[in-house]
User: Fold this.
Amino acid sequence: MPKASRPLARSGNLVSLEPLQQRQGRERVAMEARRYMPPTHKTISRDISEQLIRRITNGAYPIGSKLPTERLLAEEFGVGRHVIREALKRLDALGLVRIRQGSGIFVRDLELTAGIELFDVLLTGEDGEVNLKFLRDVLEFRDHTIQLVVRLAAARRTEEHVVQMRKLVKERRKALTDMRCLETVTTELYRVVADASDNHIFALMFNTMGRILFKLRREFDVPILGLEQAQDLLERIVEAIEQKDPDMAALLAMRHAGALRQALFADGTVGRSDFQQMP
Assistant:
């Protein structure tokens, strides 16, 4: 089986995590990213709905229980009943409650009805701190999915896919100082890799989870591991895909994921810090 032309690591580790570089990269990229992020305008009803969602997810309102009436909620939050009604409609749209006219509002089974729409709410608590358990779950799902996608892409890619990937990684390197252009090029690169896997479900999954993948990348991967290292990783994965080396492609993705988890959970990097809500 052909191997990628470069060795797996230059100095024993795929990713070097020097504390100084880590801090400087985090501050620089977070500041640059915020320049291109539209401000988040959260309505009062949305804020209330998120608080109610957290109460449902943490068990304060158990499955099958009846929520307080609109009047009681309005008194608790100090708002009009129309604001509470709007917040409850959002919970209903998310599948978290069932509104029974004349009977009340009842909590549904989160495991059966909730979807990826809850990502933003579940990732942070009311105090703004990151929910580490949920973050671990998300990263674990993402990392295993990416490993499978790049493995399949390496086995099934066409020459056309390779040409597109090589063009995009070159464009991406040129765009490292332009965050908006960088995300556009990276999005297209991810789409090409997903398409190269020749699995329609992965392509559909990218359409559904693309926003979340980029939020994770922007808030954690890039600030912690750095733009240059992320670029180097993508170039080497594309090289492994071009060489039709599924094992190398998956290994590179796995080593990147391991380095990120170590940085996040071993040294207390994650916290309130500069975490942003996606618009």
The first helix runs from residue 19 to 35.
